[in-house]
Design a protein that fits this description.
The protein is mostly beta strands. The chain contains 6 helices and 52 strands. The longest helix has 12 residues.
Length: 678
């Protein structure tokens, strides 16, 4: 028997569900015909859960000692206080990527309370390449107050959990892999997930909602320096993040989350000099919504490799993408939409004005400014300190009240097909849209050129800004005159590009010059080029282009000796085909190159729930990581997507012989199962 779970895994036969109550619940260990058992049975029925007469209700610590691969621990409502030994969360065993141990709350009535611990002194991350300069306060894993800690474990799912007294973070992870965190709805918490350790990799964080500051004072009222200034800031602990990571290997997928009214969203630190170039590798951030982010939306600080940031929506943020790195390379940014309808600090209170007026002792960066400007890209500003890149930014749509790039540089930038509208002051309430916003503010300046008059020698091989569309008054002619060799289509300032950008509708206007005026984006072997289409086809539009999702897919980059089990990152599903009208072809795209370890390789498709599966053994590999399978005529493919697509484990492997996994499979109907013995 095979039990289907979400995210591409299939639990083995014999997997158990363990039913858990808080350690002080008098109904523990009751059984039929006890009245309390019947009451619990009725309570579970309200959640759509049926149990049999052999079911026992046990403590959380007991369940964690029993649970093995494929088991689910179901938490019933109540307070799980980790000051009680019966409620301590300590996983005794590993799960597996395709048979995880699942810890799930039945509803929001489950509250996990962190243990009361003596307050530990702060710990700071340091920049080891800059004399040990301390930059960021982070939790102490061994002494902090976490509601859930996972250390040295593999194959764990946390589903729908919530907690209290989690002063360090809701979830702490150290040297663990294939960890999934989903369906959280968290408020009033400074860090949701904290991860550390070089052996931490393969984290899936999906379908969560985090509101750090429900009153939104962080955005509207408090000064930015309250959260940043080490000398006088009163709210340093609130300089948190949805994900805060300290020198982890990477392989992180962050998708379909809502992150709002927060200081930072994704902040991953990689400042350990001894492993420079190997931290924070292979990160995917897509289909998320970010709103009212006071500092950075995405910040791979000091080190990053192979980041894919696509199909996100950003409303009101300060510095969207902060690439303050020394070792960063290969950052792919496409199909994102960003806009504003507000600015920070509009309700600046008396203390906020004291910061603004320089009446509070502070660092140089906090003197005389509200820090309400921001930019899309913030690059490292120190002379001769910058990441190699390249940054590939293409087919994004931005509505801006601040510069595109602020200070610093990367060694390589490819910037194509982006639609960039700058606001005009008359179109907004007072002070939201400032006059004379710069297109670039301090970008690519030569060392010692603080006056902004001297650029580095512009290298067309290193910098390519082409096929963009903008209404900035200096685009492109004025920028060209200043030494920035940028190209694209210009629209008169004051005329918009989009239908209703302040409302988040960044679709090009019907008569836009950007329609059919972009370059064709080609992705091969980890490199992206911009040029004419390969076949006689219409040129793409400038700006957001949903069609790119059918053509450009995440490719894992090997860093050092690390590898990844192949996982599905895309399925090209055939258009509806009436019965008898021809063969159907399904193309499955994997994160790595694959080979067939055994034949036949049969994939099965269940078109609709309750229907028998349709199988195919007519599969071949194309371009190293594409599995193309044909199904015979007469099948009748009349659905937009199937109920399930089943792949055989152990017969599809990477070049190192590691088997395909259903972990983090995209789309969600992909499943991986073991083949029966021949």
């Amino acid at each position: 028997m095979l039990l289907s779970l979400s995210s591409g895994v299939v639990a083995p036969a014999g997997a158990r569900t363990l039913y858990v109550l808080p350690g002080d619940d008098p109904r523990l260990f009751v059984f039929v015909p006890h009245p309390a058992w019947r009451a619990l049975n009725d309570e579970l029925a309200d959640f759509g859960i049926e149990v049999d007469a052999d079911t026992r209700f046990i403590t959380l610590s007991h369940a964690l000692k029993m649970a093995g691969p494929g088991d689910e621990i179901l938490l019933l409502p109540g307070l799980y206080d980790q000051n009680r030994a019966s409620d301590v969360i300590r996983f005794a065993r590993d799960g597996e990527p395709d048979a995880p141990i699942v810890l799930r709350a039945v509803d929001a009535g489950v509250d996990i309370r962190a243990a009361e611990l003596p307050q530990a002194p702060p710990r700071y991350l340091v920049d080891e390449s800059d004399g040990g300069r301390s930059l960021l306060e982070v939790p102490r894993f061994d002494e902090g107050s976490f509601c859930v800690q996972i250390r040295n474990r593999r194959g764990i799912v946390l589903d729908g959990l919530s907690g209290s007294n989690c002063d360090s973070a809701l979830i702490g992870i150290r040297n663990s892999s294939y960890i999934t965190i989903r369906n959280l709805d968290i408020r009033d918490l400074n860090i949701v997930v904290y991860a550390e350790g070089r052996d931490t990799h393969h984290l899936l964080i999906e379908d969560n909602v985090w509101t750090q500051d429900p009153d939104n004072r962080m955005w509207t009222t408090n000064h930015w320096c309250e959260y940043k200034d080490r000398q006088s800031g009163r709210l340093l602990k609130e300089n948190g993040a949805f994900l805060l990571a300290d020198n982890i290997a990477g392989s992180v997928v962050i998708r379909r989350n809502v992150i709002r009214q927060a200081f930072n969203a994704i902040h991953m630190w990689g400042g350990a000099a001894n492993v420079a170039g190997r931290n924070n590798a292979n990160v995917e951030i897509y289909d998320n919504r970010f709103e009212f982010i006071r500092d950075n939306v995405v910040e791979p600080e000091m080190d990053f490799t192979n980041w894919w940031v696509r199909d996100n929506r950003i409303r009101n943020a300060h510095a969207w993408f902060s690439l303050d790195g020394r070792s960063g390379r290969d950052f792919y940014l496409f199909n994102n939409v960003g806009w504003f309808d507000d600015k920070p600090g509009r309700l600046c209170d008396d203390r906020c004005r004291a910061w603004l007026e320089g009446r509070i002792p502070s660092s140089e960066t906090c003197m005389g400014t509200l820090h309400a400007g921001g930019s899309v890209f913030k690059l490292e500003g120190a002379p001769n300190v910058h990441a190699p890149g390249p940054l590939y930014a293409f087919n994004n749509s931005w509505y801006l009240r601040a510069p595109l790039i602020k200070r610093g540089r990367l060694d390589e930038i490819r910037h194509w097909n982006n639609a960039i509208e700058f606001c005009s002051p008359g179109g907004h309430a007072a002070d939201i849209c400032p006059p004379d916003v710069k297109y670039f503010d301090g970008f690519a300046l030569a060392p010692g050129s603080e006056d902004g008059r001297n650029l580095i020698d512009w290298d067309d091989e290193a910098f390519s800004f082409a096929f963009d569309l903008s209404n900035h008054p200096k685009f492109p002619a004025g920028l060209n005159a200043a030494g920035y060799r940028v190209g694209g289509l210009s629209v008169p300032f004051g005329r918009g590009l989009f239908r209703d950008p302040a409302a988040g509708d960044l679709v090009l206007q019907d008569d836009s010059a950007g329609i059919g005026s972009g370059c064709a984006i080609i992705f091969e072997a980890g490199k992206i080029t911009c040029g004419p289409p390969r076949v006689d086809a219409r040129l793409p539009d400038i700006g957001f282009d949903a069609g790119l999702n059918r053509e450009i897919h995440f490719l894992y980059a090997s860093v050092g000796n690390e590898s990844e089990q192949p996982r599905v990152v895309h399925v090209a599903w055939p258009k509806k085909i009436p019965p008898g009208d021809g063969d159907a072809v399904v193309t499955i795209v994997f994160s790595t190159a694959i080979r067939l370890a055994a034949r036949p390789v049969a994939i099965a498709v269940t078109l609709q729930s309750g229907m028998p599966p349709v199988s195919s053994t007519a599969c071949r590999i194309e371009d190293a990581r594409y599995l193309v399978c044909g199904f015979p005529a007469g099948t009748g493919w009349q659905v937009d997507a199937p109920a399930a697509l089943l792949l055989p484990a152990d017969r599809i492997v990477n070049v190192a012989g590691e088997a395909v996994t259903g972990w983090a499979a995209e789309p969600g109907y992909v499943r991986v199962q073991s083949m029966p013995p021949e």
